[in-house]
Amino acid sequence: MHVPTVFIDGDQGTAGLQIHERLRGRTDIRLATLPPNERKDPHRRAQAINDCDIAILCLPDAAAREAVSYVRNPEVRVIDASSAHRTQPGWVYGLPELDDGQAQRIACAKRVTNPGCYPTGAIALLRPLIDAGLLPRDYPLAIHAISGYSGGGRSAIDEYEAAHGQVAAPFKVYGLALEHKHTPEIELHAGLSDRPFFVPSYGAYRQGIVMTIPIQLRLLPAGTDGERLHACLAQRYSGARHVEVMPLADARATTHLDPQVLNGTNDLRLGVFANAERGQVLLSAVFDNLGKGASGAAVQNLDLMLGV
């Protein structure tokens, strides 16, 4: 019986280490890595990619494109965890919950592009509402999110965890040029016709995301309220293993959102907080930026491609 070989290219980065940890001990795959002295050797990397069944790329964008160019074996399948191919034709977007057919598309794909951490929450909230006609495609959206500093990669981790006593800022808003690389991904896969405002930030904790999207009910189709928005999300994700929609009663009783509550899982929790008197709704998403926002999603996609 053939045991599929999975090669992680870039297994010493934040996402790569997490994926390696999630796959360690599994007997249904053979996990291939390169020794330290060969990790930057293009010939050995190319050989490892072409010798495997599925390659998972945990690399900067340019290096991911380079790795894809190494593929000569037509049987090799690729999961790219970088942002290099998230809006590129020919790549299947690796969010299994995107619509009813997406998991099957991933299962059959040769090339899968893992979603970005922030887009995972934004698209999960927005796409069902847009598909149902409850949220106009040209709605003037503002998406606010705070992530643990691990979302900034190795440099941010080193800054916040430096042992020499330097204290990093407790909170940072960034992307102020309004050119964050996740914005086109959100616009495309959520089904928007207009570019949203996307305002990301980091907090002084390691991992976990809280995302919020404010909605004015007066800008939605007549008769649309918080209950209807909630029902749409609840129906879309009723059979989803890794997506939970908070019951409205729980949302009414919630006074704060903890970005770390789902750390270590591959789960995504969505919420609808409505104030009918004010005509306002706040959509929310809570998840682990290293879980459903990165390594957990990659393993979920891997399992679909393996038929697990």
TrEMBL record:
Protein name in UniProt: N-acetyl-gamma-glutamyl-phosphate reductase
GO BP term, pick one: L-arginine biosynthetic process
Keyword set includes Amino-acid biosynthesis: yes
Protein localization: Cytoplasm
Catalytic activity: N-acetyl-L-glutamate 5-semialdehyde + phosphate + NADP(+) = N-acetyl-L-glutamyl 5-phosphate + NADPH + H(+)
Alphabetized UniProt keyword annotations: Amino-acid biosynthesis, Arginine biosynthesis, Cytoplasm, NADP, Oxidoreductase
One Pfam assignment: Semialdhyde_dhC_1
Alphabetized GO MF terms: N-acetyl-gamma-glutamyl-phosphate reductase activity; NAD binding
GO CC aspect terms: cytoplasm
Summary of the function given for this chain in its UniProt record: Catalyzes the NADPH-dependent reduction of N-acetyl-5-glutamyl phosphate to yield N-acetyl-L-glutamate 5-semialdehyde.
SMART domains, A to Z: Semialdhyde_dh (SM00859)
Recorded metabolic or biological pathway in which this protein acts: Amino-acid biosynthesis; L-arginine biosynthesis; N(2)-acetyl-L-ornithine from L-glutamate: step 3/4
Active site residues per record: 117
Positions of the Semialdehyde dehydrogenase NAD-binding domain: 5-106
Main location group: cytoplasm
Domain of life of the source: Bacteria
Native organism: Trinickia dabaoshanensis
